[in-house]
Amino acid sequence: MMYTSRRTKQEPPKYRAGQNLFDEVKSGYARTYVLGQESLFPKEGYDFPQRDVSQRKNLYKINEDSPFNVPKDEKYIRKGKVDKVITKNRSKVLQTETACTKCAAKAIAMPTPGELRPINSEIAKQAIRKDLDAQVTLREKIKVAQMKEDAKWANYENKLGQDTLTITGNIATKKWKKQQELANDYKEQFALHARVKEEERRQDLREAAILKQQQKEEELKERIHQEKLRQLAHERNREFQARNDELLQRREKRIEDDLAAEKLIAKQKAEVDQRMEERKEFERQKRETSNMIRNRLIENQSRQLADTLAKQQKWQGIAESEMVKRQEAERKRQMQRRKEMQEERNRDWLKSQRERDMKYIDQRDEPDFYDTPDDDYRRAEEEFRKKKLLTLQKDHRWQIEDRRRKEREEVNQRRKYYDNQFFLKDNEW
């Protein structure tokens, strides 16, 4: 890889205004980096000049075989760089060594019949000596050429270093002059900026005085407005108190009416409860009478059954023959069957009676006997009670609807006023 001193294109370095390139601590603006702080820029009336930084260029090329081509990541010339020139001529050296080796092998080998060994050996020794001398001479030439090449490139690199230092010094001087000009320009801009700030401060003071006067006028208007609002609130409060007293009287009257209606309803309910108790007592007596009739019927049936059993025992003692015994047995079986069926019917009847009593305990049973004047009177009285109960329920519902209607009218009446005030709730009494 060919090494050159040409640098890649990079962003120009940032310098402070008026800084010393070699000792920035001595500069007057060493601790104020104006270009890096936008808060120090003038607000208006200043344009930053365009600064063209010239790029340094080396218009020369270096041979890639130069041992001074040191990569950027290396600090010294490696041995492989130095041996590169020798490696190129290695093929010639190897050819010479191969020829010398062949001659030496022939000289050292065993003699063949008819071969003149002394003459051949001397010739081989001379050839070997000549080849070795040629190799030494070639190495010396290569070493001298390498030293000349190194000296040539060292001088060339020194010349390039001197040129680079000269260019760097010129660029630093030019930058220092530009920074001095920029520092002076900044001083002028800062002074102008301070004058503008002072003028703005005076303008702010004038505006503050105007605003203060306007604020006093607004406060006077606000006090007058607040006084009017207090008078209006006092008038509305007085109207509210009168309206509230009227509503409280109406509410007390409504409460008294509700209590009277509730007393009437409680009285009517007590009368209805008394009639229901009388009806339950009548039904209880009726059930007791029915149970007494059933018990008497059962006792009569039991007595008849006992008589029948006595007769059967009497007949059993009389019957002697087998036929009579079989007939008696058949008759007993049939009697037992009829008895079981009768008991089953009796149980079913009692069960149905109990179910009917449980189902229609609050209903009036139809009598199982012929109507009498008492029954007609009782039926007419029951119809009259039913009609009266329906009338009371209807009146109660009408009272509830009327009360709700009046409450809705009061709510709609309150919404017509400008202020909606808080009143006592209906459930607070």
TrEMBL record:
Residues 322-349 have a biased composition (Basic and acidic residues). Residues 320-349 are annotated as: Disordered. The keyword Lipoprotein does not apply. Residues 210-285 form a coiled coil. Residues 115-417 form the Trichohyalin-plectin-homology domain. InterPro entries: TPH_dom (IPR043597). It holds the Pfam family TPH. Keywords: Coiled coil. This is Trichohyalin-plectin-homology domain-containing protein.
